[in-house]
Specification:
Oligomer: single chain
GO cellular component, one term: membrane
Number of domains: 1
Structural class: mainly alpha
GO biological process, one term: transmembrane transport
Organism: Perkinsus olseni
Order of helices and strands: HHHHHHHHHH
Strand content: under 5%
CATH superfamily: Mitochondrial carrier domain
Pfam families: Mito_carr
Number of helices: 10
Protein name: RNA polymerase II
CATH architecture: Alpha/alpha barrel
Helix content: 55-70%
Radius of gyration: 21 Å
Distance between the termini: 7 Å
Length: 320
């Protein structure tokens, strides 16, 4: 971070590095945690009768057992292809807008070398909103495929065609409003918390490497990238905090996406119906598998992004 005010900081924000690093990080994390991601979605829409395999009051163990017995191991990755196709442009746009927004907000940084948690939050929100607007139809398709336990051979294009044919083109953006707020806040919280913690973690790791272990350099060239352990720990804290805050919004948007053949009810209408029929606890249905998923997922996402940028492409991440 110390060289952020010099000309050497200029190459830190090359477009192609953010696009490629963001794509790889997002796709890797999504594939690694796909079974838990599908489990979360199934729980979120279980009370709607969308799946015959998952029941809202079943334990995670029983649900996994039912899915494996009735649908097979491969079914745990059902919808993952569309997830990966979705995450490549999603991650690319997300990270690019985030890095670019941080530059534009440089006059408002906490210090000349530190964007501060507020700028990170705003930049993350911009990145999350932009990524969701551009890639939303794929997110809708992913939800439909992940909850489909009867028709196994549907792909992305057939699903898009079926939604457009039976529900209209506008249905491809069903639930977009809630998604922008939900995922915008989710990404904002993840970036703000992760990078703020990672700055401190990197400083601590440098001290341990130099003062305790007697090593003269850190990460071979003193770059602003932590170890895999710090990425996982900071990612776990960022992901779990963000998920607990925005989970009710995520559940509501999934319910809107599953309203087949009808106009999606409003945010408040869905929220009222959930509380009325399932109590407040209904807004957090599926939270446990979601937390189990995000604890490794966020760390993997950021670690792969930083790894690709610095070690593969040779583009540093400083300033954080």
């Amino acid at each position: 971070m110390s060289n952020s005010g010099t000309s050497s900081a200029q190459p830190d924000y090359k477009v192609w590095a953010s696009l490629l690093g963001g794509s790889c990080g997002s796709a890797t994390a999504k594939t690694a945690t796909a079974p838990l991601s599908r489990l979360t979605i199934l729980y979120q829409v279980s009370s709607m009768g969308a799946s015959k395999t998952v029941h809202s009051h079943d334990s995670i163990y029983r649900t996994m057992k039912n899915i494996l017995e009735k649908e097979g191991v491969a079914s745990m990755w059902r919808g993952n292809l569309v997830s990966v196709i979705h995450k490549f442009p999603y991650g690319a746009i997300n990270y690019y807008v985030y890095e670019k927004a941080k530059i534009l907000m440089r006059p408002y940084w906490s210090t000349p070398t530190d964007p501060g948690i507020s700028c990170r939050f705003l930049a993350g929100f911009m990145g999350g909103c932009a990524a969701n607007v551009v890639t939303y139809p794929l997110d809708l398709v992913r939800t439909r495929l992940a909850t489909n336990d009867t028709i196994r051979n549907w792909g992305i294009i057939p699903t898009l065609r079926e939604i457009a044919r039976t529900e209209g083109l506008s249905s491809l953006f069903k639930g977009l409003g809630v998604t922008i707020w939900c995922q915008g806040l989710n990404i904002a919280l993840n970036f703000a918390i992760y990078e703020t913690l990672q700055v401190k973690a990197i400083e601590m790791e440098k001290w341990i490497f130099r003062q305790v272990l007697g090593m003269s350099s850190f990460n071979s060239s003193d770059k602003q990238r932590g170890t895999w352990l710090s990425s996982l720990l900071c990612g776990a804290m960022a992901g779990s905090t963000a998920s607990m805050i925005i989970f009710p919004l995520d559940l509501i948007r999934r319910r809107q996406q599953m309203c087949v053949g009808v106009a999606a009810p409003s945010f408040l209408a869905v929220a009222r119906e959930i509380v009325k029929s399932e109590s407040i606890r209904g807004l957090y249905r599926g939270l446990i598998p979601e937390l189990i998923k995000v604890i490794p997922a966020v760390g993997i996402n950021f670690y792969v992004y930083e790894l690709v940028r610095q070690e593969v492409l040779g583009v540093e991440i400083s300033p954080r």
